[in-house]
Amino acid sequence: MTPTTYRTADVDGFKVFYREAGTKGAPKLLLLHGFPSAGHMFRDLIPLLADKFQIVAPDLPGFGQSDMPPRETFRYTFDNVARVIERFTEVIGFDRFAVYVFDYGAPTGFRLALRHPERITAIISQNGNAYEDGLSDGWTPIKTYWQDPSPANRDALRALLTPEATRWQYTHGVPDTTTVSPDGQNLDNFYLARPGSDDVQLDLFGDYKSNVALYPSFQDYFRTHKPPLLAVWGKNDPFFIPPGAEAFKRDNPNAVVQFFDTGHFALETHAREIADSIRAFLT
Q1: What is the overall mean pLDDT for the chain?
Q2: Which of 20, 174, 196, 231 is an S-S bond match for 245, by CB 3.0 to 4.6 Å?
Q3: Residues near 247 by Cβ (< 8 Å), separated by ≥ 6?
Q4: CB 196 within 8 A of CB 63
Q5: Rounded to two decimals, what is the model's pTM?
Q6: Active site residue 116
Q7: Digit-coded pLDDT (tens) for 135-181
Q8: 179 is in which domain, residue-wise?
Q9: Are 282 and 98 in contact (CB under 8 A)?
Q10: Cα–Cα nearest to 168, from 237, 261, 270
Q11: In a 3-state reduction of DSSP, which class is residue 37?
């Protein structure tokens, strides 16, 4: 088995922590995590793919072991997150790669594709949305904050940062919750409890509207470039619902869509099945 190594890249003074596995020279695969997680969410997937791919899974800025600079010196927007990850790929020599996007990883990875379509060899979207069709009613409190970014509406979103909310994200829609390890959610809650992390996450909740505004641009990219695209979706996701997966086929008729009977964090229960789908799709 190819071991996973744990490294840090200096991205123009910004520390990006990342996991790496596989063989240099093999096809490259970039794994981009979501909220409120980090690269550790891929801990089960990486060993299942490392024999065929060179894999890198960074922690996004403000997440995991990557730098979380003060909000006064770094604006927590998805544009800025994507710029750091774009430079990260250049620093580590990821010139052409397939990208696996989940949750926040989707608007990050899709921005990379817009800026450098020649670098993207394929897209695997695991509950990584690019269509308003895919937004559930669970977004209503965040949309309220977009429309009126008042202190009261911002404070109302703190309920999404509690340990109970993290556990709900991991277990909602999972037929047997005993199959969900507590390890990932407990580590997420550790990171969320760091001083200043709450306001970083609230800033990103507010800026998520910029992703919705870019949906038409993402869709135009799918239509124009038609990248090989695999959507592997937890069909019981409370935030990104199945129509968001099916919508990829509107703009890219060759997109492949597979649903799994699980929730938002599909890798917690279906890592092997998703790995098998990726191997078949990319090879």
Answers
A1: 97
A2: 231
A3: 130, 131, 133, 134
A4: no
A5: 0.98
A6: no
A7: 999 999 999 999 999 999 999 999 999 999 999 999 999 999 999 99
A8: 5-282
A9: yes
A10: 237
A11: coil
Mention every residue, 6+ apart, whose C-beta is less than 8 A from residue 253: none
- Look up residue 52 and give its two tokens: 């065929």
Amino acid identity, position 214: L
Residue by residue, DSSP assigns 50-101 as TTT-EEEEEPPTTSTTS----TTTS---HHHHHHHHHHHHHHTT--SEEEEE
Tell how strand 229-234 and strand 256-260 pair up.
parallel
pLDDT at 1 over 90: no
Given CA atoms 18, 22, 24, 29 in this order, what sign does their dihedral have?
negative
As given in the structure block, the two tokens for residue 280 are 């078949």
CATH of the domain at 250: 3.40.50.1820
φ, ψ of residue 4 in degrees (nearest 5): -90, 135
Instruction: For residue 62, give both structure tokens.
Output: 């403000």
Report the side by side order of strands in the sheet with 54-58: 5-11, 14-21, 54-58, 28-32, 97-101, 120-125, 229-234, 256-260
Tokens found for residue 257: 């869509």
Report the helix count and the strand count for the chain, using DSSP H and E: 11, 8
Count of beta carbons in the 10 Å neighbourhood of residue 115: 11
Distances from the Cα of 249 to the Cαs of 38, 117, 265, 275, in angstroms? 29, 19, 23, 21
Nearest to 42 by CA among 14, 66, 20: 20
Query: What's the structural domain count of the chain?
Result: 1
**Contacts of 203 by beta carbon, 8 Å cutoff, 6+ apart:** 71, 75, 76, 77
**pLDDT tens string 210-260:** 999 999 999 999 999 999 999 999 999 999 999 999 999 999 999 999 999
| DSSP classification of residue 63 | S
Q: What is the pLDDT of residues 81-96, one digit of tens each?
A: 999 999 999 999 999 9
